[in-house]
Specification:
By secondary structure, the chain is mostly beta strands. It has 1 helix and 14 strands, in the order E-E-E-E-E-E-E-E-E-E-E-H-E-E-E.
Length: 157
């Protein structure tokens, strides 16, 4: 699957392969599945809602099967909660970007317990969240990217 952002062109109807008009929501992410021959279709931002198990933050990988590192996105309340397995990280979701896949986190905070075995992942997670500017959702994998479009976090449900 290939993920891309829809340009903010308003909600002008688009035509699909069958020339049927499709209203596009400018707050959706565009998903296209080239292998199945399916044209781009909007995925609502609400698809990001829920608990996502972190696979990697920056260059720090999470061990296969480790369920202690996760991100919870509450789209309705515009909040994020996360952990690398020790401290709780929390903040607000900000979607005031130029594209449909713009995403940033603000008013971030964290508890301050000492957990030496989780320090490198936790620091990478905090840095990844602080530098997130966009997201993609492809094949069940959520990625956050920085302003240079470099992937800073990967997660899956």
């Amino acid at each position: 699957m290939l993920i891309g952002a829809m340009a903010s062109c308003g909600n002008a109807p688009q035509n699909n392969e069958n020339n049927e008009a499709i209203d596009l929501d400018s707050s959706a992410v565009t998903v296209s599945d080239e292998t199945a021959g399916v044209d781009a279709r909007p995925v609502p931002f609400e698809a990001l809602d829920g608990k996502w198990m972190i696979k990697s933050a920056k260059s720090v990988a999470v061990a296969e099967g480790d369920t202690s590192a996760y991100v919870i996105l509450n789209v309705a309340e515009k909040t994020i909660n996360a952990t690398a397995g020790c401290n709780s990280i929390f903040g607000a979701i900000n979607r005031n970007g130029r594209t449909a896949n713009s995403l940033a986190f603000e008013n971030m905070g964290a508890t301050k317990m000492m957990c030496p075995d989780k320090d490198s992942l936790e620091m990478a997670l905090i840095d990844a969240l602080n530098n997130t500017r966009s997201f993609t959702l492809s094949n069940g994998e959520l990625t956050f990217s920085n302003e240079k479009d470099e992937v800073v976090l990967k997660a899956a449900k």
